[in-house]
Amino acid sequence: MQIGPYRLKNNLIIAPMAGVTDRPFRTLCKYFGAGHAVSEMMTSDKTLRMNKKSLYRANFDGEIAPISAQIAGSDPQQMAEAARYQVANGAQIVDINMGCPAKKVCNKLAGSALLQNESLVAQILDAVVAAVDVPVTLKTRLGFCNGAENILRVAKRAEQAGIAALAIHGRTREDMYTGAARYALIAQVKQEIAIPVIANGDIDSPQKARMVLEQTGADAIMIGRAAQGRPWIFREIAHYLDTGEYLPPPDILEVKNILLEHLQELYAFYGEYSGCRIARKHIAWYTRDLKSSNEFRQAMYQVESTHEQAQVVTRYFNQLLEQDERLQYSEAVNLLEGY
Question: Is the dihedral angle over the CA atoms 48, 104, 198, 131 positive or is it negative?
Fold first, then answer.
């Protein structure tokens, strides 16, 4: 998998997810085998560039190359300026967001709302590619609404503009995250353009990864929600694609150590107050469907300090270890349910 001059170590990519793919999480996914990671979405509105949240999202200190910064907006010149700013900030790849379905983003005619206006799409693509001398990639969806999927036209225009790689989520904006991702149009795009195509949507297991690669012919796959609380999914998929064999799931001790190290990275990155609160959702994802996890989470949410939070997590996993070495789930796990 090649993006401009950058040859990735494999074809597994962690999807950009607002509020999730911060620097600690991107680093963790790369450690477990993700060949590439894209930052959280950053607004092109320069008046918001220096607020606390934006500064965290634009922090690439010590990150494993290549560094990819995702920008979002609806004004071509603002997007071009945002691209230049992120390159000056250390980005080696700029990614354009035309896929986010969130109401607050679409209400500003950004994200997937842009797919309603192909002329504006073209202007943004041209402006951003011309603004920087690094590869520019595009993340998008099949279209804005069902029955009006325009990904083929958007993909061809992206290639014409000089986009270096195209990531496609197999849903429309209307779908949000409901129903099943559709891969047939991604396969058609792959047949009709020459730039790398990355398939995204509902990839939650090694078997599904292979199936999507085979069905779409995509150059790479992008994994999002299934990596939340399960960063080792990249290790599992990479091993299966290489050997056809399944790795055993991590044991309780390994998951405990992974989570505690992740917490320390979050605390160091965000500080005491924000670190404790941002860590809560990650702890919830790691412990989803584990034995007695509902009671554990309700207690964990009440903790107000990072020190006590880490202690609560340690005690919970130690209790699990007293019962078994392997993870025991209270019911069948649906990785995508509720997200």
Answer: negative
Joined tokens for residue 21:
């793919």
Residues in the chain: 339
Task: Check whether 330 has a pLDDT greater than 80.
Answer: no
Global pTM reads 0.91
pLDDT at res. 336: 38
Question: Band of the pLDDT at 52, cuts 50, 70, 90?
Answer: low
Q: Which percentage of the chain shows pLDDT scores above 90?
A: 77
Q: Is 100 tagged catalytic?
A: yes
- Alpha-carbon distances of 135 from 5, 83, 94, 233, 283, rounded to whole Å: 8, 11, 6, 27, 35
- Give me 339's structure tokens: 């997200």
Taking Cα atoms as reference points, which of 106, 109, 103, 337 lies closest to residue 204? 337
103 vs 99, 110, 112, CA distance in Å? 12, 10, 10
Contacts of residue 200, defined as CB under 8 A and 6 or more positions apart, other chains included, come to: 15, 139, 167, 168, 169, 170, 181, 221, 222, 223, 224
Reduced to 3 states, what is the DSSP secondary structure of residue 93? strand
State the DSSP string of 193-257: --S-EEEESS--SHHHHHHHHHHH--SEEEE-GGGTT-TTHHHHHHHHHHHS-PPPPPBHHHHHH
The helix or strand, by DSSP H or E, that contains position 169, with its residue range, turns out to be strand 165-169
Catalytic residue among 29, 100, 106, 276: 100
**Looking at residue 290, what is its pLDDT?**
87
Say how many CA atoms lie within 13 Å of 195 toward its Cβ: 21
